[in-house]
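Note to self: keep these together.
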Amino acid sequence: MRRFALLAISLVVVGLLATAPALAAPPDGGGVIVWDGDYTLAAGEQIAGDLVVVNGDVTLAAGSTVQGSVAVWNGQADVQGTVEGSLLVSGGRLHLGETASVGGDVVCSDECRLDRADGAHVGGAVTLEENLAGPWRLGGPLVVWRAGLGRMLGWAFHAARFVAGLLVMAVVAGLVALVWPRWTSRVGQVVVAAPWYRSLLLGALTCGAALTVSVVLLLTLCLAPLGLILLLILGAAGLFGWVGVGAVVGRRLLPQRDSLPLVAGVGTLFITLAAAAVTALPCLSPLGWVLTVGLWCLGLGAVVLSAVG
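Structure:
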């Protein structure tokens, strides 16, 4: 029971790390910073400071007020309310509605598209990408550079989430090997011993049949819970097979290590990174998807063969 409790708690923690939900936190001065999420300021609401959103969209409804400046990187801004300071959108789209009012400058940079209604009021200058030069200061300490700060921040956050996802897979693989060491070893042995095409074909047929049955059950309202349960079982079996394949690869990478959780974690990290890296390359993206699905079906077939002997 203690092992299962440890597994449940760890899965919750790593799941929170993997999803990386939007975080809104007020810095000094009462402003709002939102990382990797959208933000909406409803009519009648106000922010006593700056609003900064990275990798998300901003909606300022008519009647809302931002008493500082607004900066949006890698997202869209729909402004119908009042911005007492300056307004910057980098790498996205900016829409100024008829009721929009900006007290300072409006800066649209890095392939930003600007839509401005006739009634929109701008107290300062409106600068598009081709006319942007030098640093721009928005409301105190917030400084934006023309060199593409928004896009660099976007890449940095995507890279951070990618690394977090890899670590989550490694931790989950280690926990699976820790809680079910015999099953993990058995699945790995089947991956090595059985013909690869047999496991691959069996995994593909199992996945196709399970998905078909699940869809049919979901369409019948009374049996929909059974369809969801079948999907969960399929996902768990596929994950277990992925870890089994990772354990085999980890054993090749760490031949001197006897710790199965460590071997499974390192191997799963390696195959996940390899599949993601190939998928990320534009010219090899289809091959990456084939590799990912192939490894998934290979592991799933090994799980089925292990279960039926």
